[in-house]
Design brief:
By secondary structure, the protein is an all-alpha fold. The protein is built from 11 helices and 3 strands. Helix 4 packs parallel to helix 8 and helix 6 (about 140-165) runs antiparallel to helix 8.
């Protein structure tokens, strides 16, 4: 009990990137702009999907859920990172560290599951279009999204409970810019066998199996599209799926490069950079990909702009 109380009272120190002060100022400005763009872009997607009748479909509902996750993830990490860069204040308590890890893990697990559900949605829409409306009903979409959220937060809770049972009595320096699983476990001075087994099981359920489902779905989608007789139909189908495929590829490539590739083949700075990609920059890129490559979203955005222009003109 005394060891657990000592663990809860530990203050950790996040080293972040260990750059010169000028580089820290530049990175601060860059991340601040990216973060503001991320919040605005994803809020715009959520607003458009909520208000535009043209976007009241399963695909856009899932896109709006992805935008919620893309707001949650950088909001969990970027504010503290900005504080470290500008004030060199890397101190964080164990409870705050676990809270940050909890929301990070929950949003990542949710996104893995949601991207799988979105690939299934595209599979049904293209490979089984006659049954699409009966399968992907509004109720089933809400249930699928809710399941992703519940599983995501449940998985994060399992990790946090297991980590809290470890004993931390060694150095309290975390060579990262946020509280991630690997640097936290490396600080434990008790056996980490349980959390390693848990990590392998959860990784299989949340990462490996979803990737397999996504690959199988898109193999069937591509085969079905190639069987279309009309070039216009093929181009429309590819255009519909390409945005989701780009988002999936960016997310999984950066995530796998951090957690599955051997650590000896990449420096710590490269690992931090890759982590920065999927925690900060990818959430900003997602709404750009969906908005620039989607005619319905651009049309709804234009309608919203025209509507606000009329309101402004008649209410000076």
């Amino acid at each position: 009990m005394q060891e657990k109380n000592m663990t809860l009272e530990i203050d950790y120190f996040l080293l972040a990137f260990q750059l010169s002060q000028q580089c820290n100022y530049f990175l601060f400005c860059l991340l601040l702009v990216v973060y503001c763009g991320t919040i605005c872009g994803n809020l715009l997607i959520i607003t458009l999907v909520s208000t535009s009748r043209n976007l009241h479909s399963p695909m856009y509902f899932f896109i709006s859920q992805l935008s919620v996750s893309d707001i949650l993830l950088p909001s969990d990490i970027v504010p503290n990172l900005l504080n470290i860069l500008i004030y060199n204040e890397g101190h964080i308590t164990f409870i705050c560290c676990m809270t940050q890890f909890y929301f990070f893990c929950a949003s990542e697990a949710f996104e893995c599951l949601l991207l799988t559900v979105m690939s299934y949605d595209r599979y049904v829409a293209i490979c089984n279009p006659l049954r699409y409306t009966s399968i992907m009903t509004s109720d089933s979409c809400v249930i699928l999204a809710a399941m992703c959220w519940v599983l995501g937060f449940s998985i994060a809770l399992m990790y946090c409970v297991t980590i809290s049972l470890l004993t931390f009595c060694g150095p309290n320096i975390i060579d990262h810019f946020f509280c991630d699983l690997v640097p936290l476990v490396e600080l434990a001075c008790s056996s980490t066998y349980a959390i390693e087994i848990e990590a392998y099981i959860i990784c299989s359920l949340v990462l490996v199996i979803p990737i397999i489902i996504v690959i199988i779905s898109y193999i069937n989608i591509i085969v079905t599209i190639l069987q279309f007789q009309s070039n216009i139909s093929r181009q429309k189908a590819f255009s519909t799926c390409s945005s989701h495929l780009i988002v999936v590829s960016i997310f999984y490539i950066t995530l796998l490069s951090v957690y599955l590739f051997p650590k000896g083949e990449q420096t710590l700075n490269l690992s931090k950079f890759l982590s920065l990609l999927y925690t900060v920059f990818t959430p900003m890129v997602n709404p750009i990909i969906y908005s620039l490559r989607n005619k319905d979203i651009k049309k709804s955005l234009q309608e919203m702009i025209n509507k606000w222009s009329v309101i402004v003109c008649y209410n000076p």
